[in-house]
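does this look right to u?? NAP version
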Amino acid sequence: MSDFPTKTSQWVIDSCTGTSGLQLQHDIPLPSIGQHDVLVKIHAASLNARDIQILANKYMWGVTTPVVPLTDCAGQVLSIGSSVTRFKAGDRCASTFHSKWISGNMKSLAQVSQVGAHTDGVLRHYAVFNEEELVKIPSHLSYEEASTLPCAAVTAWNALFGGSTPCKPGDVVLTQGSGGVSLFANQFARAAGAKVIATTGELGGEREAVLEELGATTVLSYRDSDWGIKAKEATGGRGVDIVVEVSGAGEQSAKAIRLGAQIIVIGGSSGSGPSMFDMRSTMGEVRRITVGSRDMFEDMNRAIDVNGIKPVLDPKIWGFNEVKKAYEYAETGNHKGKVVIRIVEGST
Ligand SMILES: NC(=O)c1ccc[n+]([C@@H]2O[C@H](COP(=O)([O-])OP(=O)(O)OC[C@H]3O[C@@H](n4cnc5c(N)ncnc54)[C@H](OP(=O)(O)O)[C@@H]3O)[C@@H](O)[C@H]2O)c1
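got this back:
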C-alpha cells in the first residue's frame, strides 16, 4: 500500500465563459506512475495573459475543454517511475510551457501543445508528469517565485538569447510595459550587461519605480505618440539593438531601432507588430516567438542562479479557494508583478 496520494483536488475550465466556467473538483483519481513519470506535489502556480485569454475564449492556439488550467507551477517530486533519471524524490521542480519542445527550433506543430490549454494543466494539488516535462528550479527561489518562470520568463529569455544574434554587453534593449515578460526581460538584459529603456502606461507611479529599480535607465510613456523617437534619442541617436515587443506597437518600435536591429514580436495588445513598411528603412530583423524550449528554460535557470535574480511578484498572493478572484484581479491589469496562487497553505 503506497503512502503517496492517489487523488487530487483540481480546478477545471468547463467552458470558456469567464470565471463562471471554472469549477473546483475534489477526489479526482491520479493516473498510476509510469516508468518515465514523476508524481509532483504542486506548491504554487501563476497566471499569465494567456490564461485570461483562454477563459475569455480568445486564445490564438485554441483550447480543448474540459481542461485543468494553467501551465506555470512549481512543486516537489514525491515519487518517480522505475526508469526516471532526471529527478529524484525531494527535488524541487517547475512545469514547462511547451512540454514537447525540448531543444533546437520548433519542428512540428505538435510541439506547440501546451498543458492548461490542450492537455490538463497545473491548477491542482498533485499531478503526474513525464520526467521530460519538468525542470529543476534555482535553489534561492521559493516555490511561489519559481512558479512564475515557465511562460513569461522563458519568453523573455528566448527573446534576448534564443535567436541568431543574442543580446550582448553594451546592447540597448527596449522593453514595453511592466508586465511579466517585460520585467523578466529587463532583469535578464541587465544581467547580460545591456542597458534597458522601458515604457509603461503610468509614469511617476509604482510601475515606473519598479522598472527603475530593476535597472531601466529611461522610462517612457507608451501613451506618448512619439515614444519610439524618444527611445532612439535616449540612445544618443544610435537606436536600440533589441525590442522586446509585447504590445504589437510595431510602428513605434521601428522608429526606436538602430540599423540592422532586432524586433522580437511576442504579443499584440495594441497592434500586430511592425509591418514590412515600418521596417523598410531599418534593415532590421523581425522574429516572432512562442515561449521557448526546455533547454532554454534550463539555460535561463543557470543565469537566474548565478545572478541571484528574483522574479517580481504582485504583493497579493491568492489561495487555492480564491482562484476565481485571482483571475478577476489579473484581468483588471492592476497587478504589479506576477499573479501567484499558493496551492499548499503555509508554503512559500
Ligand atoms: N508569444 C509568446 O510566447 C508570449 C508569451 C508570453 C506572453 N505573450 C503575450 O505578451 C503580452 C504580455 O504578456 P505578459 O504576460 O507580460 O502580460 P501581463 O503581465 O498581463 O502585462 C501586460 C502589460 O502590458 C502593458 N501594456 C498594456 N498596454 C500596452 C501598450 N499599449 N503598450 C505597451 N505595453 C502595454 C501593461 O504595462 P503597464 O502596466 O506598465 O502599463 C501591462 O502591465 C500578452 O499579449 C501575452 O499574450 C506572448
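The chain has two domains: 7-151+292-342, 163-288. idk if thats expected tbh
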